[in-house]
Amino acid sequence: MRRHHFDDIGGEEEENEINLTPMLDVVFIMLIFFIVTASFVKESGLDVNRPDAPITESKPEDANILVQITATDDILIDRRIIDPRAVRANIERLHAENPSGSVVIQPHLKSTNKMLVTVMDASRQAGVYNISIAARN
To answer: Smallest Cα–Cα separation from 97: which of 53, 134, 63?
Structure first.
């Protein structure tokens, strides 16, 4: 194409510009479309209520019954290996010595959930319903 400049004679001058207004309109329409059609998914999960640590007068070690589960699914109570069938009897005995105590289960990261549930069930059968799960550092 040829450009003709007729400035001296009073003719017209041809300018080549890009008008961005229609492009911005399309971008905003697309933005509104994606916002309106986006589906917001609520992730399912468990809500955990973590209570504040109470101030106790006695030593926490004396008040709680500590049950440890090792990586090989051995159960330790008072640093002794206990058979899974004898967990209930041991928790009953320790709970009778200190009725205000709770059971604290400390499972190893590589232990199975089956053993954890077994210990929790034995604690409930022994009459202790205040059960906590502690993580190892």
So the answer is: 63
CB 92 within 8 A of CB 126: yes
Q: How many CA atoms lie within 13 A of 56 on its CB side?
A: 12
Answer whether 0.90 is exceeded by the pTM. no
Helix count and strand count (H, E) for the chain: 4, 5
CATH-assigned architecture of domain 61-133:
2-Layer Sandwich (3.30)
Once rounded to an integer, what is the mean pLDDT over residues 118-123? 90
115 close to 73: Cβ distance less than 8 angstroms: yes
* Cβ neighbours of residue 24 closer than 8 Å, sequence gap 6 or more: none
